[in-house]
Amino acid sequence: MPDLRELYQEVILDHSKRPRNFRKPEGPNRHADGYNPLCGDKVTVYLTISDGVVSDAAFQGSGCAISTASASMMTESLKGKTVEEAEAMFERFHGMLTSPDDAAPAPPELGKLAVFSGVKEFPMRVKCATLAWHTLRSALSGTGEAVTE
Amino acid sequence: MKAARKVAEEAVGGAFDVARIREDFPILKRLVHGKPLVYLDNAASTQKPLPVIEAMGHFYAAGYSNIHRGVYLLSDEATQAYEAARRKVQEFLGAGDSREIVFVRGTTEAINLVSHTWGRENVSAGDEILVSGMEHHSNIVPWQILCQEKGARLVVIPIDDRGELIFEEYERLLSPRTRMVAVSHVSNALGTVNPIRRIAELAHRHGVLVLVDGAQAVPHQAVDVRELGCDFYAFSGHKLYGPTGIGVLWGRAALLEAMPPYQGGGDMIRTVTFEKTTFTEIPHKFEAGTPDIGGAVVLGAAIDYVGGIGLAAIAAHERDLLERATSLVEAIPRVRIVGTAREKASVLSFVIEGIHPHDVGTVLDSHGIAIRAGHLCAQPVMERFGLAATARASFGLYNTRGEVDVLGDGIRSAIEVLG
């Protein structure tokens, strides 16, 4: 088994215990609910987008350390990004955890989100890390709901 | 408690030899992440002993064919083996008649069979189906679907903070509108053992039928359906050290005879014309198409295996494990046990303050310990206790005191890793 410390890194545990942007903001203009029916994890992502730029991102919900930390760090890194940049971040993050190339390094654009690259070694937990991101994509596209299994 | 443990210890030291039993289960020699497998997810499914594995190979290698139709020797042998398995189940459940044993895919299909056939004929608008607040989704959703179709109402018997059914509430909720009481014998999420006999007595005084989900009961205690006094009883082979894909519905013969068929097809008919079909007698009326012949035969082998050890000895052994695990786990700071009923079997659900059960599951997996983490297919139970999920260890006949101690160490390690 890969080292548990690769999965539960200090920064991930910190964000899971003290999630940032864990609130329902005033008047978001996009939001979506994410749900994993197999494990019961739930997340709602709220975005405020003005002139094509994410001016605020927040979330609420309940889940494991990986899904909570992933949502927390995602909202932190979204602020100030254009909608196109946010969509590109989804692709990079999703690709980092699901690419068949085991040796592929984390894309440098992801910055500190690269801390989640260790989740790839725990296939059962990849859905935990990507739930908030699928929900983000639903919020951006306006479908309002994301389900991962 | 002390006296009970002493009795259990004597039973363990006597006829029940767990080291020898473990020799029967090849998978228990496996390493998981370099550690010996500690399999504590027996409420989800159980591992298979050699006599069961070998019975599967033997049936397909030496005696297989379709049943109830061939005029040749093999078909006769396969039919005999299939019907012998039915009689084994009959004895195992203490049923009066082997015609009362219907082979199905599992507990879920057994409950769906009753809701589709008995329900179709006997439930109408304004009627009520009573379920308990501790049911598995498989004893909720089929009734919910039936109620929606018929305009009937699903009524829930509440449970208390220990996870016991509140009997006075049950008494109050039984009404002239009640058609069926559907309850689990043992709760998969809490381990609670329900007082089926009392439940059935009261229901029958009101002329109401009782269906029991026995999936979590039959591997852990001797069951006698006539003594329990219920009307339907369902269980799955795979939780009884047998194969997946085979399970049993027991129902009183008079009830089964009055029920319409479940699925139409071969083997369940007497005569077929394009104008009209007449159906054959029970239990075959409910077994359309070629059944899981091998599954039924091997379930018979699993029943023989469990019977050879003895359910009383198994129950005593597992009670010892559950008591040891309970005192070990509740002594760990920040850990809370969910489900503290006075009568429990096999199941220890728990939560750790500030740590999600999935993360506990991942850390335990790294120690080779397999537990369940999540809503346990019992979301209403989670809601009742204000939880999104729990971690659950569940014990089987091959688990040991040493494994219970490994679980305790694993939980302490999870708290250390996850903070």
Widest sheet, order of strands of chain A: 3-2-1-4
The overall strand count of chain B is 17
Q: Note the overall shape of chain B.
A: globular
Q: CATH homologous superfamily name of the largest domain in chain B?
A: Type I PLP-dependent aspartate aminotransferase-like (Major domain)
The Cα radius of gyration of chain A reads 14 Å
- What is the number of independent domains of chain B? 2
The number of helical runs of chain A is: 5
Instruction: Classify the helix fraction of chain B into a percent range.
Output: 40-55%
Greatest chain-chain interface? A-B, 22 and 22 residues
CATH class of chain A: Alpha Beta
Strand order of the largest sheet of chain B: 4-10-9-8-7-5-6
**Which structural class best describes the helix and strand composition of chain A?**
alpha+beta
Helix and strand element order of chain A: HHEEEHHHE
Give the integer mean of the pLDDT values of chain A: 91
Per the principal axes of the C-alpha atoms, what is the gross shape of chain A? Answer: globular
